[in-house]
Amino acid sequence: MKYYDMTRHVRGESLFADDLLVPEGTLFASVFSSSIAHGKILSLDFLDAEKLAGVKKIITAKDIPGQNQIGGIIQDEPLLAESEVHFCGQPIAVVIAETQLLAREVKTKINIQYEELPPVTDAREAYAKGMLIIPPRIFSNGNVGEAWKQCDVIVDGTVETGAQEHLYLETQGAIAFPTEGNGIKIISSTQGPTATQRAACKVLGLPMHQVEVDVMRLGGGFGGKEDQANAWAALAAVSAFVTKKPVKLILPRQEDMRMTGKRHPYSIDYKIGLTKEGKILAYEVTFFQNAGAAADLSTPILDRTLFHATNSYYVPNVKAIGLCCRTNLPPNTAFRGFGGPQAMFAMEAAIYKAADKMGIEVSIIQEKNLLKEEDEFHYGQLAENSKAQTCWNEAKEKFDPGQIKNNIEKFNAENKSVKKGFAFMPICFGISFTNTFMNQASSLVHIYSDGSVGVSTAAVEMGQGVNEKIRLVAAEIFSIDKSKIKIETTNTTRVANTSPTAASSAADLNGKATELACKNLFKRLISFVKNEFNYSPQDKIDFRNENVFCNDEAIGLTWAELIQKAFFKRVNLSAHAHYAVPGIYFDKEKNKGNAFSYYSFGTAVIQVTVDCLRGTYVVDSVKAVHDFGKSFANVIDRGQAEGAIMQGIGWMTMEEIIYNSDGKLLTDALSTYKVPDIHSAPKEIEIHFLENSDNPLGIFNSKAIGEPPLMYGIGTFFALQNAMKAFRPEGEFQFSAPLTPEKVLLGLYKE
Amino acid sequence: MKNEIQFICNDREIKTDLHPATTILDFLRKNLQLTGTKEGCREGDCGACTVLVGELDKNEVNYKSMNSCLLPLALLHGKHLVTIEGINQKELNPLQNAFVDEGATQCGFCTPGFLMSLTGYFLSNDTFSVESAINSLDGNICRCTGYASIKRAVETVTNEIKLSGTSSTTETLVSLNILPDYFLMIQKRLAEIKPFINQRANDVLISGGTDLFVQQWEKLLSSDVQFLQRDESTLAIWIEGTNCFVDAQTTISEIKSSAILKKYFLQLEDYFQYFGSLPIRNRATVGGNIINASPIGDMTNFLLALDAQLHLKEKNNERVVPLKNFYTGYKQYDKKENEILSSVSFPLPKKHFHFNYEKVSKRTFLDIASVNTSIYLEEENLQINELHLSAGGVAPYPLYLYKTIDFLHNKNISPQVIKEAAEIIQTEISPISDARGSAEYKRLLLRQLFFAHFIKLFPKIISLEEVV
């Protein structure tokens, strides 16, 4: 059974936005952006560039027909800078020309003068200057102040996590076409077609029904195209609207890297208190989130940081403070994990520091505090169907950490300059958008008169296999071959008011909606069969392998024949269904409630080897027991886990975003920003699907898989430090990620 | 006479008079509408645009993987260009099947590039192993899969495919349905293409162009360009007396697999696996690496430690400049405008010599060095008679460590001497902080790599504990 999309990918036949044949006369847009991080625009002079042959127009904020605003949650982000610029790479103008090359070349002829203002690039500095995007967010339970008195051990410290570039292989881009009646159709590489539609409508000053957004597939998104696809689609839309011609805008890699936001860097202060046995009693943590120059999705990302402050552990007294700090970096944005990974890294660091002080194994503290059934999180939700301990125990049983530890100790005793290390990494990740209203989706299913089926949903395919999962849902319910089912592009005119494909939830939400729509059709067809063939209401009609059965006997009617008959008897062969996740709510004043539909759990064991002469290292193995619920697409789910782990390892090791003090990105190309290659993948990767897991809240009892395994990668950091400790036992290592070969070498040798 | 570039793209003949610096990536996507070849980075760092280029060599067509974003149209004359569309058949081929079965493709954007690299691997090797097949993917980045499924797919197909001794590689791959059968006619068709006569004025001389096309591809499109290529009748690497000569247009792949060089440098393949990626090594040249004058050039670093000489030609005059004296500042060197680097020579290593090369970068493969260093050493009873030592990434140009070499001359190798030498190194380098590391790190790293030379070459005399 082949996966449909994959069979096209391997032939190079899958189309991405830049692959589409565009009509004759299509124009090309190139974005002119700020070269400084903070300042006033004194003058902007095109020096007759607009009159050059082949140049159509140069668009600035003045040309925007509607509002110059694309901020989704908080209205603080102009599409094009007007009088001030707030980050290096902020769009100022768009050159529209007959060729891509010319549009790019014309940018070099634009003369701009700035009055430079001092940039702020550091979150703590921004906080000190009062530059908060929203007031501090506080999630808490128990009484931390009282709890410290009961603690035998208290440690505190600071943790730093770096930014991470999404590096979707397909860069951002969109093509906009003028439609009759002054409307616009946009083909966009976006994870959120409706958000893109809204942004375009706002800048065009059009009602939503005048703007259609269509998405075929994405060459990777990882959160980077959840909110940040909007600017490029809106710019293409304005360009098409103004020129009355189709306009294509695809960002070259370097511009994509300079202009778009990353995973948020965090600076974190923590304090943790435990009993002498290692039971955590209290945890206080302050997150300085570097949001960049505009809010973007920083506020819900910060909330998820606070939700996941205690990772997979039960802590009775928690105070978690989130500070959303405005700086002069490109607006940071969603990235697989959505604020969760930073929180979990801090919690693990706190445990490591405590274990170090207490002189005990880290895993003793980890194990002792794992969530039990119905333990209460600091935001009031209970850990139901908790698999934290189950996964941990199964990992211990399968991977024999005792043996691993012995082998490593033996190796380290025998080798002076090469050291091995290992770490456990348990995870717990909540599934749902924490903005409750977003947990809805709909699906439109057409059965065509020949029996083939088309399904439209809100889900955007970006490699995570959501289309295949939806196809499996429809095929299962109709009991027809997958080849009869086509998943259509994601289009705002077919499925409206969609939530973005994000929060790991697209398969659940859109799968459930499709399940409902298919079941409606199924019911309609059953009653048609009963009427048509005069069966009684008690007769059991069902479909098996494209044949109609009554009371377990084939009635000699195929699926195709049934559909044709139904069509001629004027049965409605289309259905639309809407799904809203039940049982979730969250009080944003008290910061209490059941924010999540369910949780995903797992435990990984990571082993590494460090060359202590050169500071380089390899990840020997990542082995995990992960709770997939009941997976119904193993190849896809395993691939999601393996890919997420690699991205997590990249974030913890080699992926280093460097801005200089002027706010300029130094790592703006693949030659300077390194993501894992085939040689840096773990030598061994072993994913066990937790057995006997069930999840009625997920599609077909499965669990969401997109984000959670990324956080296993965090264990790599601690495994590396474990190996470094073997070389330099007295070393005090900083909890500063990524742990690049540079930081390893300096950590091993610096006085 | 119209000056047309003529080649075969997949099964189709192509004639074009477009600018010779037009990249194959643009030509494929814009002119031929073959969009299976993707633009991921336009700097040869992601492999999404990987294509195969087949070149006629006597009775065979030799295929190599290349980054089409760095490959100019001019170089394709008389060659066979293969894209993903050119390996597609009615049904999925065994490589494509394995990728689908293992889920070795997620978003699909990088996938054609991976498949082209892998196809290139089977086309250009006589024996297959899982490890070397995976190595052939060192220029391909995938952001989705984490590579585990790709490795599984490669393992499956590599174990399935066996070449028979009797038929050619192409014939075998066609019989296994890995290649469509039009491949069998390519050799004959290529032989019919007449040579291309370059009639353009010389403005920009381009060797492999793997850096130039990253930095200046737009500018090249409005320049007169001439592409330097080795005359097929001449040797790439040869020995004259006690010297080894390397033609400036020799590619890094040719260096890496050179039988002559391997006789002296047993670990040659290991050293040069860290140079770019396979598609880059297939294009980048020794001369290009030297004239590009990057402070961290891997080839330059290697040659400095061999005390290489550069042979610069201007019409019929030849001038010889020692590489160690060639560079005068950042991207500045002792070459007159009309001089062309024709070859590089170095004295053949003496009988009892030691050589080592060290490179550390943020990512071990396909990355530019934070610091690299090479050492050539002759000793007798541990007394150093001859020494050359280079360091990259610690100065505005590839450095020959004169002072350290002077200090070590005639010294006996001991931990104390090595420690003292490491101190001297610190006085002759001037690293800066950049994306590849802080100055502090580069100083420490060079010290460590200098120790690494001696720990590797003289493990009984020098150990890490004794020097740090």
Q: Give start-end ranges of low-pLDDT stretches of chain A.
A: none
Kindly provide the radius of gyration of chain A, computed on alpha-carbon positions and rounded to a whole number of angstroms: 27 Å
Quick one: overall form of chain B?
Answer: globular
What level of helicity do the residues of chain A show?
A: 25-40%
What count of structural domains of chain A?
3
Number of strands of chain A: 28
What's the CATH C level of the largest domain in chain A? Alpha Beta
**Beta strand % of chain B:** 15-25%
**pLDDT under 50 segments of chain B (min length 5)?**
none
Derived structural class of chain B: alpha+beta
Descriptive account of the structure:
The complex is a heterodimer of chains A (751) and B (468). The radius of gyration of chain A is 27 Å and the shape is globular. In chain A, a hairpin with a 3-residue loop joins β9 (173-179) and β10. The longest helix of chain A is centred in the C-terminal third of the chain and has 27 residues, at 506-532. With 751 residues, chain A is of the alpha+beta class. Chain A has an 8-stranded mixed beta sheet, with helices on both faces. The N and C termini of chain A lie far apart (59 Å). The mean pLDDT of chain A is 97. Chain A folds into 3 domains: 25-118 and 172-250, Alpha-Beta Complex (Aldehyde Oxidoreductase, domain 3), CATH 3.90.1170.50; 266-434 and 588-749, 2-Layer Sandwich (Aldehyde Oxidoreductase, domain 4), CATH 3.30.365; 440-580, 2-Layer Sandwich (Aldehyde Oxidoreductase, domain 4), CATH 3.30.365. Chain B has 468 residues and is an alpha+beta fold. Chain B folds into 3 domains: 5-191, Beta-grasp domain (Ubiquitin-like (UB roll), Roll); 231-347, Uridine Diphospho-n-acetylenolpyruvylglucosamine Reductase, domain 3 (2-Layer Sandwich), CATH 3.30.465.10; 355-467, Enolase-like, domain 1. Helix content of chain B is 34%, strand content 21%. Chain B has 21 helices and 18 strands. A 5-stranded mixed beta sheet of chain B has the order 2-1-5-3-4. In chain B, a hairpin with a 2-residue loop joins β16 and β17. In chain B, α3 runs antiparallel to α6, α18 (402-408) packs antiparallel against α19 and α19 runs antiparallel to α20. Chain B is globular and about 70 Å long. The N and C termini of chain B lie far apart (69 Å). At the A-B interface, α1, α2, α16 and α18 of A face α3, α4, α6 and α20 of B.
